[in-house]
Amino acid sequence: ARSHLAAGRPDLASPLLRELIAGDREDARYYRALAPALLALEDREGCRKLLDQFDQACGEFAPRAQAELKRRRAEKPDKDLVEENGRPRRREIFERRELAEKASGFVNDRLLLRATLALSGRLTSEHKTAARDLLEKLAKPGRVNADLALFLAQGFAALRDFERALECTGRARRADRDNFQAMALEARIHLQARRYERAVECAVESLALVYFQPAVHYVLGAALARLGEREKAEHALRVALGQAPGYVPAREALGRLMCQDPARVAEGSLEMARAAQARR
User: Residue 261 has what DSSP assignment?
Assistant: First the structure.
């Protein structure tokens, strides 16, 4: 299933993941993989039903796991899990960790998947309200690591709450000063907020660490175009297309940029036609 997902074939991965869930409803990994696969297939209703199943399963197995973990710890505390020869009882330690994970009810995972569903598709006012509530629950202190901070930033950016989004990228960057993904996301946020100079700065900062980022070259080109730096903008957009020839937004932006020059309207129109063809 993971191989199919990595190959961009969620249609082939989904049946396998459903089979795995049918065999073991208590493994969160299967839900975490199947939910985005269904969203990739634009099956939002199927994803919602899956998350309802996940909620129901957690409601059933979490109390059992809590009770079993409590019983085992009453018999022997975690700190005493050693053999007579002083070696740790690895099997028991592993099983207790697994029980502790199940006892948690995978609350964060479920919130994350619900938020992903709420942010998918067309964002109506109802979806936005639901997404914001879920993001706020995820953003509680103590829960946020660097990966979650990036997810929250993307979510708040989708809701056009740019300042809150930048707060989250700031968390990720404080955890890792060289987090190029956080820098790239900041560039996109500044572009959306029409702060073009800051978008250029953040894009360059991210590309200095990892150059192969077609989307960031596109953001850089779009921001430079807004600043009137046409030559630099064209170079950035061509790099984006060199790295990802099928990247439609970059080709469209390049076509629009060329059409601003009366002498290059024909050339620009050709790029726009290629973009339209690629989009189809």
Answer: S
